[in-house]
Each structure stands twice: as structure tokens, then as C-alpha cells.
Amino acid sequence: MSELSLERGLAALRAEIDAPVAAFFSSCVRCGLCAQSCPFYLETGDPRYTPILKLEPLRRVWEAEFTLWGRIKRWLGLGQEVSDAMLAEWEPLVYDSCSLCGRCSMVCPVGNDLVYMIRKTREGMVQSGHAPEGLVAASVRAIRTGSPMGLQWKTLAVQIQHVERSTGLTVPVDRAGAEYLVMLSSMEIINFPEYLEAITRIFDHAGVRWTLSTQCFEATNAGIQIGSKDIAAELVERVVVAASALGVSRVISPECGHAFTAIRWEGPNLIGRPYPFRVFHIIEVLDELRRDGRLHTEGKEADRLSMHDPCNLARKSGVIGEQRALMDLVAEHFVDLDEHGRFQWCCGAGGGVSSNERAEPLKLAAFKRKKAQIEAVEPERMVTMCATCRTQLEEGLEEFNMDIPVVGLTEMIAEHLVERPAAEPEPGTESGQPA
Amino acid sequence: MSDTIEVDGKQLAVDEEGYLADLNDWVPAVADVMAKQDNLELTEEHWDIINFLREYYEEYQIAPAVRVLTKAVGKKLGKEKGNSKYLYSLFPYGPAKQACRFAGLPKPTGCV
């Protein structure tokens, strides 16, 4: 990424304008519903955070170069130019105040996919040198070390040892011919090692042949967050190479929501060819095991539980019923948040917001929407299935002095597995209280 | 910030943000010198966190970001210390960044 400049930024914006973008801009009726769907706008009341306004640099390029009226205005000297100063002003709008949650795209009455256009606008921001420092650093680390945190296999190896010690099971590594390759995120490895422990237990229980790969263990995608197709494609390519080397037929995305979007939906287009394997989120895999009768659980959580749907999983990928069917297996007293599934509200941290220090106050402001939802339901604990959402929920709840622990659904399932080898079930393990 | 700090009469290299360039240069006096630069007096409570970070890095080979630190401290030293309000009260410039710097670790990094 040498010599980023306004010219490169404008060229990138121009190149990103395709038929859908042109149709979207010419369809916008300026109704402002997108503002009403955006947690960043709603919780700050700042009109600059109206989603369609965040796209103004892209819209100006579209108008000036792809519309007759725009050309006439330019010819008359009335065109609105996109300057370096403008892009600098828009950087916090395009990055800090957008978690790519996609709620605006869902509610737009004329069907404009705003989040698709934010993603495209970010390509121009990167090329013009207007991407947030935190995301630039994470992208550089991802390319250099394979992890946006700079986390190495040696750290994962320590966690594998912990898991093997506490479960008495082997975590399979580089096992050719396994059915599933499990990808992780650095956050899962370092902050939620219970996830690795849970899948180790569950897959042993269900007889799933799986493996990790030393060649590539991380599938979060800083390129998608920052808006760089080249970086995104390189990170996807590494997963494809590792999966192909082991000959797996299925790849499990990290729990991390945007990683799922990257590897599940954007990947093949980024690398320009189909995958030789299929991609699943762990929740989809667990629900398939449940449906196939391969998950044997006992006892249920007795406290009042609610659930946060990650945007990328529920709204963008339609995985909604699966986590509820799994909850039903292990929870007696589950209550959904009022707006959930496709209509859920973002935690406020996704889309690169959490790796952008400057966005901290906005991230916390956007969380207030989630907070209000949680307060309305008064759960004793929250359940979720994305490391970024979970970190944000924990941080936000702590900030507002709400004593509501956040747990991962996968771990909760693992706690209720019937011990496999011992034929006699242990008596009195009715409601498995979490440790 | 200068590119070296003087500790026990020796010049130790630091990066532009004040983190030790070489982890192996660390001695407890490094923390004292850095704390003085930040106008902070190190107490036993600070040292609990600094020592914790040294051990953490020894095991995991990574400097923990703030949420990771908070959680890890909670697991090891108890919930009353594993919360960001307590940690910020000790390290006002950010518990992960400031404490990692005092402990001679690299700057902690977050996820995307």
C-alpha cells in the first residue's frame, strides 16, 4: 500500500460504482428511515450519522461521473468535488459510526443496500489514506503474522495444552482427511479459550473428525473491515490453501461474525473461484448434529437467559432458528429480546469499530440500544456466539454496572453433554450450574 | 519521549511510544522509572498487576488488550480486581497499555 493519495481514492471509488450502486443512489427517496435504523444515529442524535450521508463521497463521484445532471453541473462549475479534506472529515463517519450491521439495508423502503456501499466506500478511504490507525495496524499484522493481534501458533499451542489437560482429550492438529477444519479468531484463542475446550468435548462426544491447521488457524478478515479487497483476498486464500492441504470437505468459521461473512459469503468472489469445501458457522454445525441425534444432553440451565444475535449471523446469513433450537436443548427459561433475529440491534462493536480506539465513545453510545433491550427483558445471563459481541456486551454491561454475565452458547452446550463412555448416567446432575 | 530511558545508570532503548525495545532489558527498576515519567507512585497493588503481566507474557507470549487483561486478572486475582474501574484507577493511561509498558511488554493489540 504505497503512496496512498486522493487520486487513488477517487479512482477506487469510481471503480467500486457498479450497477447496483448506481441504482441505489438514483432510487434514494431521502426518507431518512435509514437513520431510524442506525444505533449510532439513534443513540447520539447526531444527524451526521445518518447512514446515507456516510456515503456522500461515493454519491458525489457517482453523480459527477455517471449522471447527465452531474456532468452538466460539473461543466457549469457547480459540481461538488470530493476533496482530501472531505474524505478526512468523512473517515469517522464511514468507520467509527458504522459497524456494518446492515440494519439500514434491511429497512430501506426502496431496497438500497447501504452496508454494501459502506463496504465499497471504505475501499476508497483506504486508497486515499483515510483509514483509522487501529485498523491499518491490525491489517498489517494480519498480513505479516496471520493474526490481527499478532498472535502466533505458540499461544494457541499453550491453550491446546490447557484444553487437553482439562478434558483428557486430544486436540487434533494437521490431521489430513478430517471432515472439518476448525478456524479460530485470535480473540477466541486468547480471551475465550473455553470455546476451543467446548468444541473439543462436543466433537469427541458426537464422533466428529476435525482438525486445526498449523498453516492457518485464524480466519478473521481485517481486509473486509478496513475495506481492502487485496488484503481480504489474501487472508481468504490462506484458509483455502490450508483447507486444501488437509483435504477437508467442510470448514468451520470462527464464531466471530464478520469472519463468517468474509469466509462464507465474500470469499469466493474475493479469490475469483469456488471453494473446494463448504463453510459453516459452529452454530449451524451444532444444530445439524442436534437434528441428526448426535448431541446427547442432560439437565437444563434454570436461570432466566436471553440471547444476543450477532448481525452477521442472524441478519446477514439467516442463521436464526438454529441457535434457538440449541438453546431449547439446554435452557429451561429462555426469553428472546423484543427485536431479535433479523431485526436484532447491533452490539455496537463490529465492522472494525472495536479495533479503532478513536471510536470508543461511539461504541459505548451505540451499545445503549442493546442495553435498553436487555433491561426490558431482565435476564440473569446473556448468551451469544461471537467473540466481538461478547467482549462488547461484557464491557458495556460492566460500564453500566449491570451484573449480567455473558456466556457462549457453544460452551453452554458442552456443559450439558451426557458423558459418553460411562453407560450409567450420573444421578442428580439435573441443572448443571455453570462453574 | 526520548528513545532511551536511564535505569540504574544504564541507557535502555525504547520505541517511539515508550515501550522497551528489548524485553530482556527489563528489571523492576524499569517500572519505577517509567512510573515516575507518568507521575505515578507504584504501590503493591500496581506490582500485583505488573508481576501478573510478566507471568502472563511468559506463558502466552502476547501482551493482553484491555478486555483480555481484565478477564485474566479476574480469573487469577479475583473479581474485585478484574474490572476496568479498578484497573483504570491504578493505571490511568489505560491498564493494558500503561501496565504492559511498565512490565516491559510490547504494546498490546486488539482484534478486528
Automatic annotation (TrEMBL), chain A:
It comes from the Bacteria. Keywords: 4Fe-4S, Electron transport, Iron, Iron-sulfur, Metal-binding, Transport. SUPFAM superfamilies: alpha-helical ferredoxin. InterPro entries: 4Fe4S_Fe-S-bd, 4Fe4S_Fe_S_CS, Cys_rich_dom, Helical_ferredxn. Residues 19-48, 90-120 form the 4Fe-4S ferredoxin-type domain. This is (Fe-S)-binding protein. It comes from Marichromatium bheemlicum.
Automatic annotation (TrEMBL), chain B:
Gene3D superfamilies: 3.30.1420.10, DsrC-like protein, C-terminal domain (1.10.10.370). Pfam families: DsrC. Its EC number is 2.8.1.-. Keywords: Cytoplasm, Transferase. It comes from the Bacteria. SUPFAM superfamilies: DsrC, the gamma subunit of dissimilatory sulfite reductase. It is found in: Cytoplasm. InterPro entries: DsrC-like_C, DsrC-like_dom_sf, DsrC-like_N, DsrC/TusE. Belongs to the dsrC/tusE family. Part of a sulfur-relay system. This is Sulfurtransferase. It comes from Marichromatium gracile (Chromatium gracile).
